[in-house]
Amino acid sequence: QVRLVESGGGLVQPGGSLRLSCAASGFTFSSATMSWYRQAPGKERELVARINGYDSSTNYADSMKGRFTISRDNAEDTVYLQMNSLKPEDTAVYYCNARRTWGISFNYWGQGTQVTVSS
Question: How many C-beta atoms lie closer than 10 Å to residue 102's C-beta?
């Protein structure tokens, strides 16, 4: 059974930091591109960052560059999102995604974790 379980969300003041975690199981984690997406109320889901399973190369949305860092631990089947200098506009539900487009392809989503940036 595939599971993606996000944790680490919560309420933080502007300028603060949070570290999100996504624990994966039920598939070959190291073969998957892992991504974080977010969806704010009334807006479409958008890509935050992704990390390749083969060489851990990363990509970020422009508005997150320099503030957010995605990383993965293939030994622990976990992907992280370190978020610094948080802004109110970062408030959203953050979702973990696992995707593989070769071989037996898959595209899995977690249930999301709420991040609220407010004073």
Answer: 6
Residues 6+ apart with CB under 8 A from 66: none
Q: Find how far residue 28's CA is from the centre of its chain.
A: 18
Q: Hunting for tokens 């704010």 — which residue is that?
A: 40
Please, what's the b/e burial string for 17-56 (b: 16 or more CB within 10 A of its CB; e: otherwise)?
ebebbbbbeebebeebbbbbbbeeeeeeeeebbbbebeee
Give CA–CA dist 60/44, Å, rounded: 17
Instruction: Specify the DSSP element, H or E, that contains 106.
Output: strand 106-109
Q: Looking only at Cα atoms, what is the longest distance across the chain?
A: 47
Q: Which residue has the tokens 């989503």?
A: 109
Is the model's pLDDT at 85 over the cut of 90?
A: yes
pLDDT at 65 over 90: no
Average pLDDT, rounded, for the chain: 96
